[in-house]
Amino acid sequence: MVDAHGPVEVRRSRKRLRTVTAYREGDRTIVAIPARFTRAQEREWVARMLARLANQERRRRPSDAELMQRAVDLSARYLSGRAEPASVVWSSNQGRRWGSCTPSDRTIRISDRLRGMPSWVLDYVLLHELAHLLHAGHGPEFWAELDAYPRTARARGFLEGYSYGEEHADDAGRPLEDPVADAEAADDPTPGDLEQQN
């Protein structure tokens, strides 16, 4: 079976009794189902899960027009509509930045690295750039604008962790070893650091 994202692989499991899961793995979509499902149940649940996955991705990956509307809605909700962008678009040339804004022409660019991230993270970045339409720097007035958004601290932590993970991963996406931390752990093991031998 193939969907818009490539081949679909169905994985049956005897341990899986009642749940069905779908996720992307590289260029494939994996749908995990209970081994007891009939072929008809398999077809039904694969179709259902592919639709759910596509709907979830559509919500997480809005178009430029949807991004603009989202920004307008966020401005109205959290900034009393005072930040009025002329355009809000996805951009692939943001480098390490999550977004950028040009107050003189009221344009906002959002890094396409945010596509697929939780919506509350995207909302924070949009609000951050919208606040720059009101305040150029990162002074107290700027941060006061973001106080109304309840997930500011959480989103900033998420993005810092994501950036740290990117910086400390090898080309295959695995975390790089930290020789200093490994040496410290070897010199001063705590009970949680010791491995149990069978």
Automatic annotation (TrEMBL):
It comes from Cellulomonas chengniuliangii. Signal peptide: none annotated. Pfam families: YgjP-like. The lineage of its organism: Bacteria, Bacillati, Actinomycetota, Actinomycetes, Micrococcales. InterPro entries: UTP_pyrophosphatase-like, YgjP-like_metallopeptidase. Residues 166-177 have a biased composition (Basic and acidic residues). Residues 166-198 are annotated as: Disordered. This is DUF45 domain-containing protein. Residues 92-149 form the YgjP-like metallopeptidase domain.
